[in-house]
Design goal:
The protein is α+β, with helices and mostly antiparallel strands. Helices cover 54% and strands 12% of the residues. A hairpin with a 4-residue loop joins strand 1 and strand 2. Helix 2 packs antiparallel against helix 4 and helix 7 packs antiparallel against helix 10.
Length: 293
């Protein structure tokens, strides 16, 4: 049953299936009924095959149980109690940092009758510091849920340009920054660019194998980095506007291949969506703060 569920989810993720094949399957039986008005021979054939005629006529009704079966077949997204507990502790810690900042400001100015509004906003909003806390929180989650203790986890938040990365906004651990020139990643086959282009999470199970694919999603770096085998997740941070601009991408890198699995993509998405919303909040606060007087 597990294999059937995974196969159903794989089919559900294929764009060509949802955009072309499924609409054709839905439209075909009713089309047979309409065709009878234009092709008398086909009408005669259909009338002699009652089973086909029954399916064609009642197909819209039959779609309801079919859709219910399909929905039940798809493997549900689930995380363990331990994963959820860790995630909630991390979120609580991130929020706690902001609460502490608000409290300190309140205590510091408790003797004053009034405070200028712009000073309040400037003091209690520290988006750069908060984004660093969130990135560290992402690291804490993947560090705390890793199956192999020898795996090294690194997390980066990158600012995207029109197509490619423009800079590393922040990363954790803070002493494990980029080991290559930024321009080497400013190309269409980098994981960052691919993530922005596809507008969805990208999971690369083995970077070394990925570089040998015709349509690779990872830059084949030269020198000592070329032989490294890693596992990477890239997640787009989508703004809630009509276009859905993607100005930032989260990257989580594991030092060993097959640490991150394509089959667990929905779990990664579930967790990273929450972190990305908090990053967006700080991004917007930073933009507003720059305009405040």
């Amino acid at each position: 049953m597990v294999r059937i569920r995974r196969a159903a989810r794989w089919l559900d993720e294929k764009k060509w299936l949802s955009a072309v094949i499924i609409p054709m399957i839905i439209a075909l039986p009713p089309s047979l009924v309409v065709a009878c008005d234009f092709y008398p021979k086909f009408k005669t054939w259909l009338e002699s095959h009652l089973a086909v005629q029954f399916v064609a006529v009642f197909w819209p009704i039959l779609l309801v149980p079919c859709a219910m079966i399909w929905a039940n077949l798809k493997e549900p997204v689930s995380i363990s109690v331990a994963q959820l507990s860790l995630f909630l502790r991390i979120i609580s810690h991130i929020v706690g940092k902001k609460v502490g900042r608000f409290h300190d400001f309140k205590v510091k100015h408790s003797s004053k009758k009034t405070i200028e509004s712009h000073k309040i906003f400037s003091s209690i909003t520290q988006p750069d510091d908060q984004m660093k806390e969130i990135v560290q929180g992402v690291w804490s989650y993947f560090e705390g849920t890793k199956r192999d203790s020898s795996v090294e986890i690194k997390v980066a938040l990158v600012k995207m340009g029109q197509e490619h990365i423009s800079k590393f906004e922040c990363f954790y651990p803070s002493n494990k920054g980029p080991r290559f020139a930024l321009k080497e990643l400013q190309r269409s086959d980098s994981c960052f660019s691919t993530t922005k282009s596809l507008r969805t999470i990208v999971v690369i199970e083995d970077t070394k194998k990925e570089t040998s694919k015709p349509k690779r999603r990872f830059v084949a770096l030269k020198g000592e980095l070329a032989d490294e085998e890693k596992s990477i997740i890239c997640f787009p941070i989508t703004e809630p506007d009509e276009v859905g601009h993607i100005n930032f991408v989260l990257s989580i890198c594991a030092s060993k291949p097959m640490h991150f699995k394509e089959s667990e993509k929905d779990v990664y998405t579930l967790i990273l969506e929450h972190f990305s919303q908090r990053i967006l909040l700080e991004v917007f606060l930073k933009e507003i703060k720059l305009k405040a007087h």
